[in-house]
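User: For documentation purposes, I need each entry recorded in a consistent format: the amino acid sequence on its own, followed directly by the corresponding structure tokens. There are two entries in this batch. Please keep commentary to a minimum and don't merge the entries.

Assistant: Recorded as requested. Entry 1:
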Amino acid sequence: MALRIDDMDKKILGELQRDAAQSLDEIAKRVGSSKTPVWNRIRKLKEAGVIRQQTVLLDAEALGFDACFFVLIRTSEHEADWQAKFLKALRERPEVLEAHRLAGDIDYILKVQVQNARAYDSFYQALISEVKVHNVTALLSMEEIKSTSMLPL
């Protein structure tokens, strides 16, 4: 049975998305409840898989990762073995922040965060040495205009 999300759950989730390091007291105060019911709701949301994990967002540029590339991949391979090898290669590379399989002319899009163009080239060379791809187009992001992980509750 699926968990029913009500307005209070949405308020709590909104607060956690804004700042998961808040204390239960702070969250309860912001959502107009008390600590125990908020804790119980958070526990249920975790058990239901609505809250997958809590983490910290780092500033890539502050850590020297100045280059963000969006990598468009076309492949002529669509067999299960190729896909498994490709997905394994992506999962093993920490510079791949996101990977999506697409409908349309492009098969996959990757978001790759690296120190510079030379680091991207190393990533690219390693990837194409492991899996066969038909075409790769890399687009350098000149400026990040908006980036969020917050869902519009």
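Entry 2:
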Amino acid sequence: MQNKAERIVILGTGGTIAGKAADAADNVGYVAGQVSIEQLVAAAPPLAAYELETEQVAQLDSKDMDFATWQRLAQIVDRHLARPEVAAVVITHGTDTLEESAFFLQRVLAPGKPVVFTAAMRPSTALAPDGPQNLLDAVVVASQAKSGVLAVMSGKVHGADRLRKVHSYAVEAFASVEGGPLGVVEEGRLRWLGAPPVQAQALGLARIEIDADAWPWVEVIQNHAGADGRVVDAMLSQGVQGIVVAGTGNGTLSERLTAALMRAQAQGVRVLRSTRCDAGPVIGGALPSAGALSPVKARVELLLQLLA
């Protein structure tokens, strides 16, 4: 049982886990972000064994996640982690952009206490909702892990840097690329499958107020058959500040797309090159590599670099 002196704060941001549908047999025709964080906690009775505090940060479908909510979430998490009585923070989130939000908080905070994301692929009204078990597992991990931003889905524990949503519909929709999950939850216990994540240095942006219109404009584009540079030139004419390009294979790009990106870089636009592949780094090449970051995480990294 959790030590009662160690409080876990659960923050709600909406998502499918808080979704409701008119028909219990309908797992797709729901409205996200309808159930309060207090109701989500009540739906998992074993959570009564823990000392919990709840706060509703947002009620979003995570496809609509925005910079203002990211900033507010970072500030609220930072504030709670600074409280000596708080052992960890758990965040309920939609699945669509969970990997981006988790990576954002990892890079901004690099927390010395656990911050654990969880979500659901079925709404709260489903015949067999996955949200209550996922939330319980997330609290288990939050009570037993040491630090860092983690995500818990379907009994598996993922690090923020390697987490990806890999299926559009299945309950087990998340995976960790390049090595698999960090651990598993088994009957109320966290078992690490490898070494716990190593903490990087925090960027320290949580305490900086950033106006909504001051966030850099960073877009993701893709190499494909017939790719040319027109989309780059169009964005350049409109003032784009950063471009992440998802290349084919080892970040390869067509000659015309490469030329356009080189023109953009010469005009001061920051460029990072990632890959369409599900796993693997981008090695070599004339344009800067995003390493093993997925295109959407490379975009988060570039946003933060431009802000910093």
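Summary note for entry 2:
The chain has two domains: 7-192, 216-307.
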